[in-house]
Amino acid sequence: MSDLKNGPLAGIRILDLTRVLAGPYCAMFLGDLGAEVVKVEQPGVGDDTRGWGPPFTGGESAYFLCINRNKKSITVDLKSSEGINLVRRLAGSADVLIENFRPGTMERLGLGEENLRALNPKLIYASLSGFGADGPMSEVPGYDLIVQAWGGLMSITGAPDGEPTKVGVAIIDLVAGLMLGKAITAALFAREKLGVGQKIDTSLLEAEVASLINAGSNYLVDGKVP
Fold first, then answer.
1. Using one digit for the tens of pLDDT, what is the confidence trace for 99-130?
2. CB pairs under 8 A, 24+ apart, for 76-82?
3. Are 149 and 164 in contact (CB under 8 A)?
4. What is the CA radius of gyration of the chain?
5. How far is it, in rounded angstroms, from Cα 81 to Cα 150?
């Protein structure tokens, strides 16, 4: 823990309202750099991945443990006014808020960027969704498997004469989490110069397109499906 306390993000507080993989992975990355991460979970069951096993160790799933180290967890009922007010107070003293609800959910809860920035102008508000905050598919829930297929990654994975194949881990979730973490650190740097926070928005689909690298650019250049 001494190394974490002396990390480059020591003194930065992250309010983590995410669940499952991409968002928690992003928050864990920031915690590894020394930030204090407060993870908000739903009462009774916590993060979905706590029950994703076997295997389990010490009553927790290996899945949950691999992406939630260096965090402090609390449970908050976001269906109650008391829970909403608690999150507002936490956001008032946070440097970064990360959320991965469907677009529009945080606004309906009264926890949208405008609401929280009125309390804390320096807050960096980071959102991660399946298909983006706006556009024709913004309301569609996105999961790694769906996006791997939708964006074409599965079509270039596996045997040439075989079926499209999923990558062995949820790679799009991981790439999206790292992309968001990189953007958050850049926003923290910018805040030192500008004195205000920023809104950051990314999606699994954006991470998917970025992951296609040369396969994607080759298709754009010569029109051949890889």
1. 999 999 999 999 999 999 999 999 999 999 99
2. 76/40, 76/41, 76/42, 76/43, 77/42, 77/43, 78/42, 78/109
3. yes
4. 18
5. 38
How many angstroms separate the CA atoms of 133 and 125, rounded? Answer: 13
Degrees to nearest 5, angle at CA 124 with 120 and 130: 130
pTM above 0.70, yes or no: yes
Could you identify the residue written with the tokens 């913004």?
138
> What mean pLDDT, rounded, does the chain reach?
93
pLDDT tens by residue, 33-74: 999 999 999 999 999 999 999 999 998 999 999 999 999 999
Where does the pLDDT of residue 3 fall: very low under 50, low under 70, confident under 90, or very high at 90 and above?
Answer: low
How many C-beta atoms surround the C-beta of residue 147 within 10 A?
26
CA distance 160 to 158: 7
Phi, psi torsion values for 14, nearest 5 degrees: -110, 125
Sign of CA dihedral 172, 178, 181, 185: negative
Judge residue 209's burial from the number of C-beta atoms within 10 Å of its C-beta, 0-12 exposed, 13-18 middle, 19 or more buried: middle
Burial of 201 (0-12, 13-18, 19+ CB in 10 A): middle
- Would you name the residues annotated as active-site residues? 173
Could you tell me the CA-to-CA distances from 223 to 158, 216, 220 in Å, in that order?
Answer: 21, 10, 6
**Partners of residue 27 on adjacent β-strands:** none
